[in-house]
Amino acid sequence: MAGAGSGEGDEGLAIGEDGLARTAWAMGSEMMRQYYDTEWGMPVRDERGLFERLSLEGFQSGLSWATILAKRENFRRAFADFEPDVVAAFDESDVERLVQDAGIIRHRGKITATIGNARATVALRAEGGLPEVIWSHRPEATPVPRSMAEVPSRSPESDALAARLRAAGFRFVGPTTMFALMEAVGIVDTHVVGSHRRGSSGVWS
């Protein structure tokens, strides 16, 4: 959606007041524009960073990304900055604390899944670690969408990643959620052609 003072073209691009073209959803708010301009689609290759983003994508299921992004600092505080070893040690008292935390999404299933996913992340180190598993599903080519309608919501690689993580004990990691993760951390580039951010990750030329 184009924000105030911006024009949206036929190709799913929004032109901001700064004259720069962005994929249209980035213009929903200043928060979303900042996220789009500085972080979304840039490579994340460290375990903590990937665990955080996997966790937030899981919490986003059924909600808007803007809702999650607005609560991101609260999530970091609640989940020990998403340090997998610390979250893996959370117990039932932590679950009850988190269920009562109005600063995050108080969904017991997603909270317990995040703790379980932290334990699965720690266990996965014996098989190369979470970054190796996630990045091993990078496709041979990235989508080249020329409109929002051409941006896929899943792929064979996201299907395979979801299956791999589920087999390792992860939850809330369905194919659509994993494709969103792949977009967010630079494994695929789904910036609409013409966006000033297209190709900025260095992963895809």
TrEMBL record:
Cited Pfam families: Adenine_glyco
Gene3D superfamilies: Hypothetical protein, domain 2 (1.10.340.30)
UniProt name for this protein: DNA-3-methyladenine glycosylase I
